[in-house]
Amino acid sequence: MLELRNVSKVFCDLKAVDDVSLKLGTGVVGLVGHNGAGKTTLMQLVATLARPSAGAILFDGIDIVRNPDTMRRRLGFLPQEFGVYPNLTALECMQYFAALKGVRDPARIRHLLELVNLAEHAQRPAASFSGGMRRRLGIAQALLNDPDILIVDEPTAGLDPEERLRFRRLLSELGFGKLVIVSTHIVPDVESIAGQLAIMRKGRLLALETPDAILQRARGQVWQASVDAADYEALRGRLHVLQAQRQGTQVQLRVAHPGQPLAGALAVEPSLEEALMAQRYAMSDPVAEAA
Q1: Are residues 39 and 172 in the same domain?
Q2: Residues 118, 190: one domain?
Q3: Of all helices (H) and strands (E), which one includes residue 188?
Q4: Residues paired with 267 in a beta bridge
Q5: The model's pTM
Q6: Whether 220 and 200 share a structural domain
Q7: Which intervals hold domain ABC transporter (predicted)?
Q8: 148 and 221 assigned to the same domain
Q9: Pair 181, 68 in one domain
Q10: Which domain holds residue 266?
């Protein structure tokens, strides 16, 4: 079990992580929030790449701030920017990372390259890979030591739709016996696989909830309406517009609001992304958010 106790991280005068406490067992956890919410900093703290300014982080009861090697032996980590050595092939990159992690089984390397659909490209220089292929190589190296906890930052960036589906399935399967933390701006990437969502804003943990609980709370707060295109700009200044689509002289809107925002507006079933936006808007000032 991973436990964070009142964890904070301060850079100069900026509190990137502010008094975060949570407990996580096995399964997939989606870490979601806007840019600058503190997601990447929080993952770096858990991955022992940075030390907290205050608080404690424990994995299976062991303080990983004082004993970082305990976590590193059991961790798989894929950062948002994964670099490769330009003169090494994909296979050589994997062999290098395997040596660093103490993995001596060549079959493990071959299996992981097949898992991420790179086996036929194993002898190609990794520097020649597309962004999506490098991302897949990064996923493979993160799994080399069969980690108990896997942390991935924006894992599907650069992947095509088929690869994204394959990777979501892989993460879901890994979550059966491991803790998998997925930070992403693409809510559909975690909507179908995450048992819990950790929602961050301005360095603070707002909630740790199941997707069903978030959807349930948002029901009755997402509305659909059709308005004249000429009226749209004025309405946009006072309503939390989630979607807007121009159709002739009309604009079809989906809006987050605690009550009926316009005459004729109909309550609709929210997507998880809309439910999260509705929750965010409920905690913010309408005029500031609309701006």
Answers
A1: yes
A2: yes
A3: helix 188-191
A4: 223
A5: 0.86
A6: no
A7: 2-227
A8: no
A9: yes
A10: 216-290
φ, ψ of residue 4 to 5 degrees: the values are -110, 130
Helices 161-174/131-142 angle, 10° precision:
10
Question: Which tokens sit at 22?
Answer: 């949570």
Q: With cut-offs at 50, 70 and 90, classify the pLDDT of residue 83.
A: confident
Provide the pLDDT confidence category of residue 15 given band limits of 50, 70 and 90: very high
Greatest distance between any 2 Cα atoms in the chain: 67
Confidence at residue 283, expressed as pLDDT on a 0 to 100 scale: 64
C-alpha span between 163 and 5 (Å, rounded): 36
56 and 97 housed in the same domain: yes
- Of the listed ranges 65-69, 187-191, 208-212, the one predicted with least confidence: 187-191
Same domain? 248 vs 147: no
Contact call for residues 199 and 209 (beta carbons, < 8 A): yes
> With bands split at pLDDT 50, 70 and 90, how would you rate the model's confidence at 284?
low
Structure tokens at 251: 């604009």
Q: Is 245 exposed, middle or buried (0-12, 13-18, 19+ CB in 10 A)?
A: exposed
